[in-house]
């Protein structure tokens, strides 16, 4: 066997379509043995081929084969005898199964030509590779979707929200089967996606969380460079706008009317008001302070930590007869202001509170807290002892009626004129028996249940 005879050739089957494959005559691919080894040593089989007959992968041929059947071609290696079968006479290699490149992209096999009778090698064994040629049979997939992303409201157009990435199981090194282009199917005009990178960006200025907080965006990845006929996959991206402080507090009314009765004591609640702020958390937190008004000394302001209302309370008791109305100016302001949105401020609002003082029906008051009268012993019944006097302090100035409660003068030594308060004896008194009589007189406003008792002491 001279060198010129040492040529084992192989011819490729019809389904091989690799564009880099050198053309060798009309037969197609051939494995050609030279002195230094196989000139090229790859077969190509297209994946997922589902024709009626087994695919002809290629053909081994030795130059020493004269066609009389003396040569036996032997195939060994990955898939030999199962996936790849060889006709040992003709050297034809067929694939018996459908191949999936994404499962196994290539097979390493060994070709041999031996003498059919002696089994002596006519050629040294040589390795070659069957490459499974890609077709675009895998759509892009977003393995990590659905996605959740957050971006501050009012972000500038083009602010990056997040990057989504799809994977494609097809061959990235060959053709466009795995060349992906991203597009946005849902979510315009608010958001956009960069076709090459999958980076989602804001696309509209002044997106306002207080108007709308959630966006359901759908991103598509398409292979074949996004062209017609490509396969595609989609994913959902839930985008939430996060809050910034872009709303100043606002009192719903500019003037609030409240009233307080003069009989209320210090610390009593007079009224509440609340400024609205649609922002969230600290951005919507409103504090209050009294800034002005003639009621500054009479009222105090506190804040209900739960309802965030301003509470006006009495600092001192008010008196209807002295002053009947007060004014307060209340400011509601954001504690946490974002310097970026200062121009939309000021982040405060002012309201006026008008507080009217209500007249309370106060009981009549005796002119003196106590009275001391004298009367001689043995003075006849009906002797005038003295006069007590109580006044209604209210504006109405109702008439007052007097009486002596029975328990303060059990033996009824005295009587009082119910209209003018004159106290008289009912019988002569005996100093040696009792030198002092302590009695009480009550004064009652006509038509009211209020009364006031003042003791009248007589000795
Ligand atoms: Ca594929
Ligand atoms: Ca693909
Ligand atoms: Ca705010
Ligand atoms: Ca906001």
Structure, described:
GO terms for molecular function: beta-catenin binding; cadherin binding; calcium ion binding. The protein has strands at 8-12, 33-34, 37-38, 42-46, 55-62, 71-77, 84-86, 92-95, 106-115, 126-133, 147-152, 160-163, 181-186, 191-193, 199-202, 214-222, 232-242, 255-261, 269-273, 286-292, 299-303, 310-314, 325-334, 348-358, 365-366, 371-373, 384-387, 390-391, 400-403, 414-416, 422-425, 437-445, 451-458. It is mainly beta. It has four domains: 3-133, Immunoglobulin-like (Sandwich); 147-242, Immunoglobulin-like (Sandwich); 255-358, Sandwich (Immunoglobulin-like), CATH 2.60.40; 365-458, Immunoglobulin-like (Sandwich), CATH 2.60.40.60. The strands form ten sheets. The chain has a four-stranded antiparallel β-sheet, with no helix packed on it. A hairpin with a 5-residue loop joins β14 (191-193) and β15. The structure holds calcium ion (4 copies). Residues 136, 138, 168, 170, 177-178, 223, 231 line the site of one calcium ion (CA).
Number of helices: 0
Helix proportion range: under 10%
Mean of all residue-level pLDDT scores: 87
Distance between the termini: 163 Å
| CATH topology group of the largest domain | Immunoglobulin-like
Rg result: 54 Å
Query: What form results from the Cα inertia axes?
Result: rod-shaped
> What is the domain tally?
4
The order of strands across the largest sheet is 1-5-8-7
Topology, number of strands: 33
CATH architecture of the largest domain: Sandwich
CATH C-level name of the largest domain: Mainly Beta
Output the CATH homologous superfamily of the largest domain: Cadherins
């Amino acid at each position: 066997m001279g060198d010129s005879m040492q040529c084992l050739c192989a011819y490729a089957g019809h389904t091989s379509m690799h564009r880099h494959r050198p053309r060798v005559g009309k037969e197609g691919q051939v494995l050609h043995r030279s002195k230094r080894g196989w000139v090229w040593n790859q077969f190509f089989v297209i994946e997922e081929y589902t024709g009626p007959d087994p695919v002809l992968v290629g053909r081994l041929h030795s130059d020493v084969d004269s066609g009389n059947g003396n040569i036996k071609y032997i195939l060994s290696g990955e898939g030999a005898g199962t996936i790849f079968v060889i006709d040992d006479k003709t050297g034809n290699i067929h694939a018996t199964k459908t191949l999936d490149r994404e499962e196994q992209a290539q097979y390493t096999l060994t070709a041999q030509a031996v003498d059919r009778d002696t089994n002596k090698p006519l050629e040294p064994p040589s390795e070659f590779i069957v490459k499974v040629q890609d077709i675009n049979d895998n759509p892009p997939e977003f393995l990590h979707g659905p996605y959740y992303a957050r971006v501050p409201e009012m972000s500038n157009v083009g602010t990056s929200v997040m990057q989504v990435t799809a994977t494609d199981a097809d061959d990235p090194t060959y053709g466009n089967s795995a060349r992906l282009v991203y597009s946005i199917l849902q979510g315009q005009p608010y958001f956009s996606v960069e076709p090459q990178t999958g980076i989602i960006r804001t696309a509209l200025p002044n997106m306002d969380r207080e108007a709308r907080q959630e966006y359901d965006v759908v991103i598509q990845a398409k292979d074949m460079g996004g062209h017609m006929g490509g396969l595609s996959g989609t994913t959902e991206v839930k985008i939430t706008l996060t809050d910034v402080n872009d709303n100043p507090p606002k009192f719903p009314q500019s003037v609030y009317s409240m009233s307080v009765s003069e009989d209320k004591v210090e610390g009593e609640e007079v009224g509440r008001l609340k400024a609205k702020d649609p922002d969230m958390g600290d951005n919507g937190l409103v504090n209050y302070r009294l800034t002005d008004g003639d009621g500054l000394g009479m009222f105090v302001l506190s804040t209900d930590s739960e309802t965030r209302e301003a509470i006006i309370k009495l600092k001192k008791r008010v008196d209807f007869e002295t002053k009947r109305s007060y004014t307060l100016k209340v400011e509601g302001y954001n504690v946490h202001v974002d310097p970026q949105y200062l121009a939309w401020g000021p982040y405060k609002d002012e309201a006026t509170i008008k507080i009217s003082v209500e007249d309370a029906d106060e009981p009549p008051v005796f002119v003196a807290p106590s009275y001391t009268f004298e009367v001689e012993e043995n003075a006849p019944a009906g002797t005038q002892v003295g006069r007590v006097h109580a006044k209604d302090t209210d504006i109405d100035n109702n008439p007052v009626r007097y009486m002596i409660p029975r328990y303060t003068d059990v033996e009824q030594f005295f009587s009082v004129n119910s209209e003018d308060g004159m106290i008289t004896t009912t019988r002569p008194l005996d100093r040696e028996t009792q030198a002092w009589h302590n009695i009480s007189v009550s004064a009652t406003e006509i038509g009211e249940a209020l009364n006031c008792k003042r003791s009248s002491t007589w000795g």
